[in-house]
Amino acid sequence: MDNNEKLSAERSLKIISETIEQSRTDIMRNAGMPMIFWGILTCITSVTVCYLWQATDNPSWNALWFLMAVIGWSVTAAKSRKDKKRPTNFFSRVLKISWISFGLFALIAAVIGTLSFDSTVYMVKLPITTVLILLLGLTGLITGLVLRHTFITAFSVASVVPANFALMYPGPYESLAICITSLFILVIPGIIINRQYKK
Q: What is the domain partition of the chain in residue ranges?
């Protein structure tokens, strides 16, 4: 009786473990393209903002980030409607909530940061770029840990380097810090994932 119970428990643990790994594999198969899309969109916006800000000496070009968010979320929403039949699991829900939370807090940080430039109300300006990089790094870290992807995890932790760069060199070039972060947390891992989990 005890042996049967032990075998049954071991079998149950094996099934649970296999289910968890299968869930991770399913996510990885579909994670590459969204990461590449958002990463490239962010890099294009970063370089554009940097160039226009540098050329015109006008930081108002940072408004392009809001346009990028609208374009990105519109494309993502349209893609999600197409993929509605795709089954979800615990890991996919965790990642979805994490990235939605990132988007929400990034928007809040951008709005508060913009308002903080009014020195008649605020004593300190919020370093928007640094905050966004750290938020991206945190969300990337969660993604890397959930997917057990060493590259994403390591480079998410390393995002403190471009975040510090953005503080040291405020102005047009701080946008490039976001580009570098997106390249290593989104684009490169997305390409690696696509190659590893080709259908």
A: 2-196
